[in-house]
């Protein structure tokens, strides 16, 4: 909609939330504006009919699964019959005007995308945080509304705007646990849902690889528990972590288990999930951006590339080849042609490289080691499989580090 001021004599907008579940909504037009309106209507679970000779590919993809109905022609009088709500979003003002006129006759509210002053309803800038919906009208200026909406959503996400008023007192509320994957370390790489869960937590059990700056922004009444597991050093036992999650949840608290990467990628998240389920504690899993893919990408290394590799394997290197506890088929990995990504494999790198070479991988296969991925101290070194152990020693590489084996490593050197 345009930002042309609307005559104050027409009255101020009356904000209202439409409940459109299983109610017919007609969208006339199939371009980008229609696409954006349809996305919100489908989220409200309306029965959406799009009337347009052509639609965007994204809208067309929604037809086959039945998410919407597409009438493949231009608008005709009568298309709004039975509608509760209408959107006129074509690039022809005459068509939009005709749709709005019919809507007026049928007493159907209609949002006209090209002319706010001719619309019977204005579409606010909408943001969502769980069941909380933020709608902002900008007094005729959509960009103003978007700016305010974004600021409110950001404040709810990072906790600077605290949504605690709706909570019951601790003693009268059932506790819960959210297992949050915090991503590779940069707080900007946590998911929106993950950041929201942290902002709403009463207790946070955090690893040292989780985004630490998120903890600094928490209110003082939030209890932060250090659940770090240092490589071959101090660590909190997994059994103790499980017990703390259950204990605090059963006391009526919202508990977040904040990990680096993804909770189900070498994160023992399933053990924590099982402990919560066994204790009858409601638990949610919030996937995270795994460092196995993100850290190489941040160093300019794709784990796959068209025409170069059709597979990649992520392997834990916390125990070396030949160790009684190793579950890795190193012989099979040595025969692969694609990419191998090794996590938790700094101290065992020499033994792993030797095993890969022994089972068929060329000694001169490119290798990149990325330490402290996504943080201000990130650095990457390149070597070969045969030279890996020596390079790690010479460069003083310490965990956390991810190393990548394969021809994709050479791609990064061209950038």
UniProtKB/TrEMBL annotation:
Q: Which domain of life is it from?
A: Bacteria
Catalysed reactions listed for this entry: precorrin-2 + NAD(+) = sirohydrochlorin + NADH + 2 H(+)
Keywords (alphabetical) are:
Cobalamin biosynthesis, Lyase, Methyltransferase, Multifunctional enzyme, NAD, Oxidoreductase, Porphyrin biosynthesis, S-adenosyl-L-methionine, Transferase
Task: State the EC number(s).
Answer: 2.1.1.107
Enzyme class, one word?
Answer: transferase
Identify the metabolic or biological route this protein is part of. Porphyrin-containing compound metabolism; siroheme biosynthesis; sirohydrochlorin from precorrin-2: step 1/1
What GO biological process terms are annotated to this protein in UniProt? methylation
Q: Which residues form the Tetrapyrrole methylase domain?
A: 177-388
Name assigned to this protein: Uroporphyrinogen-III C-methyltransferase
Give the originating organism. Geodermatophilus arenarius
Q: What is the lineage of its organism?
A: Bacteria, Bacillati, Actinomycetota, Actinomycetes, Geodermatophilales
């Amino acid at each position: 909609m345009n930002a042309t001021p609307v005559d104050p004599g027409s009255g101020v907008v009356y904000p209202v939330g439409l409940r459109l579940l299983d109610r017919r909504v007609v969208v006339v037009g199939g371009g980008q504006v229609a696409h954006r309106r349809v996305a919100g209507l489908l989220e409200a679970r309306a029965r959406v009919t799009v009337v347009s000779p052509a639609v965007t590919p994204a809208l067309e993809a929604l037809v086959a699964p039945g998410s919407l109905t597409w009438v493949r022609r231009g608008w005709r009088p009568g298309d709004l019959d039975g509608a509760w709500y209408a959107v006129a979003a074509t690039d022809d003002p005459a068509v939009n005007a005709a749709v709005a006129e019919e809507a007026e006759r049928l007493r159907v509210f209609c949002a006209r995308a090209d002319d706010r002053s001719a619309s019977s309803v204005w579409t606010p800038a909408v943001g969502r945080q769980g069941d909380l919906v933020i709608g902002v009208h900008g007094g005729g200026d959509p960009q103003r509304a978007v700016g305010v909406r974004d600021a409110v959503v950001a404040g709810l996400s990072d906790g600077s705007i605290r949504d605690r008023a709706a909570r019951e007192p601790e003693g009268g509320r059932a506790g819960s646990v959210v297992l949050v994957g915090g991503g590779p370390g940069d707080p900007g790489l946590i998911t929106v849902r993950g950041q929201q869960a942290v902002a709403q937590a009463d207790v946070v059990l955090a690893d040292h690889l989780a985004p630490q700056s998120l903890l600094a922004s928490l209110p003082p009444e939030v209890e932060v528990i250090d659940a770090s597991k240092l490589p071959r050093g101090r660590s909190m036992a997994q059994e103790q972590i499980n017990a703390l999650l259950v204990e605090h949840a059963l006391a009526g608290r919202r508990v977040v288990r904040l990990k680096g990467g993804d909770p189900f990628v070498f994160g023992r998240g399933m053990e924590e999930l099982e402990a919560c389920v066994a204790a009858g504690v409601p638990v949610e899993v919030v996937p995270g951006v795994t460092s196995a893919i993100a850290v190489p990408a941040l160093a300019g290394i794709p784990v796959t590339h068209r025409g170069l590799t059709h597979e990649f394997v992520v392997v834990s290197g916390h125990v070396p080849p030949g160790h009684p506890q190793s579950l890795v088929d190193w012989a099979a990995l040595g025969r692969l042609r694609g990419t191998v990504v090794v996590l938790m494999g700094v101290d065992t790198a020499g033994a792993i490289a030797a095993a890969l070479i022994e089972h068929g991988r060329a000694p001169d296969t490119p290798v990149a080691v990325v330490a402290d991925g996504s943080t201000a101290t990130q650095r990457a070194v390149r070597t070969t499989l045969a030279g890996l152990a020596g390079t790690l020693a010479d460069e003083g590489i310490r965990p956390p580090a991810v190393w990548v084996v394969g021809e994709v490593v050479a791609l990064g050197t061209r950038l």
